[in-house]
Amino acid sequence: MLKDSYAFSGFSVNDIDAAKEFYGKTLGLEVEDNEMGLKLKVAGGHAVFVYQKDDHTPATYTILNFPVDDIDKAVEELKAKGVVFEQYPEMTDEKGIARGKAANRGPDIAWLKDPAGNILSVLSN
Fold first, then answer.
1. Cα separation of 47 and 11, whole Å?
2. pLDDT on residue 82
3. What is the pLDDT of residue 103?
4. Residues ≥6 apart with Cβ < 8 Å to 101
5. What is the pLDDT of the chain when averaged over all its residues?
6. Radius of gyration of the chain from Cα atoms?
7. pTM score
């Protein structure tokens, strides 16, 4: 029944203007305004819907993952734009990257938060 439906994901923020600035200028995504929120255009022609919710509670899990070819380069470029990466002493190195490939535990990954406190990641392809 739904196999041909164009499904999309969405999440809430507490400040749509801060989200537009962060996702558009800091992360470099194409952001489109609509009457209900923002449409984040991601690779492959897909979109993610972002909407304002006054009683927003940040997600406690990763809501959006960005695969990259060079995680170290991506982390450095984002840090240069003011992004702060989460530090998990038991997992991440001084850059904020969990080196999963070296330990055969999945991809290298680094977590960050958007202005609303939602968790995002960049991870190695």
1. 12
2. 96
3. 65
4. 107, 108, 124
5. 94
6. 15
7. 0.91
Token duo for residue 48: 């993610």
Residue 98: left if φ>0, alpha if ψ -120 to 50, beta else—which one? beta
Q: Which tokens belong to 85?
A: 């990466």
Q: pLDDT (tens digit, 9 = 90+) per residue, 55-102?
A: 999 999 999 999 999 999 999 999 999 999 999 988 899 999 999 866
Q: Round to whole Å and give the CA distance between 95 and 6.
A: 37
Structure tokens at 9: 């994901």
Strands, DSSP E only, in 14-125? Answer: 30-34, 37-42, 46-52, 62-68, 97-98, 109-113, 119-124
Helical ranges in the chain per DSSP H: 16-21, 71-80
Give the separation between CA 2 and CA 43, rounded to whole angstroms: 23
Q: How far is CA 68 from CA 25, 43, 50, 65, in A?
A: 18, 12, 22, 10
Q: In angstroms, what CA-CA distances link 112 with 82, 108, 109? A: 11, 14, 10
pLDDT at 123 over 70: yes
